[in-house]
Amino acid sequence: VQLIEALSKEHPEDKVPEMTPLPTGFALNTEDSIFMEDLDKFLSNIPHDGKVIFDDIVEDVEFDVFLKHFLYVIILVSRGRLNYNSVTREIWKPQVPDAT
Question: Which run of H or of E encompasses 91?
Fold first, then answer.
C-alpha cells in the first residue's frame, strides 16, 4: 500500500535555473558562428534546376570549411530550403510552384 501511495504522489518539479554561467575559459568567436547571410550565400552556389552530389558541395581541403559546409547542408535541409536523397546522396533546391 505504501508503494502505491508513494508512486501516486505528484513529485515536486525540479527547479531549472533560468541561466547557467558559461564554463571557465569558454569563448565564442564570431568566426565560429553561422549567420543567415552565410546560409544564403552557400545556398546561392546550388543551381535552381538540377541536383548536386553532396560530397561535391561539402568537400574541402580545410576541415573547418568542410565542417561549415556540412552544417550548412544540415541546417538548410532541416529548414526545408534544400532536399536530400540519402540513396543517391544528392541535394537540390525544392521546386516552388509558380503563382498563377
Answer: strand 90-92
Contact 90, 84 (CB under 8 A): yes
Q: Give the separation between CA 58 and CA 82, rounded to whole angstroms.
A: 14
Task: Write out the three cell numbers for 44.
Answer: 546561392
Residues belonging to the chain: 100
Task: Give domain limits for the chain.
Answer: 29-92
Residue tagged 532541416 (cell numbers):
78
Percent of the chain with pLDDT over 90: 29
CATH 1.10.10 is the classification of domain 29-92: yes
pTM: 0.62
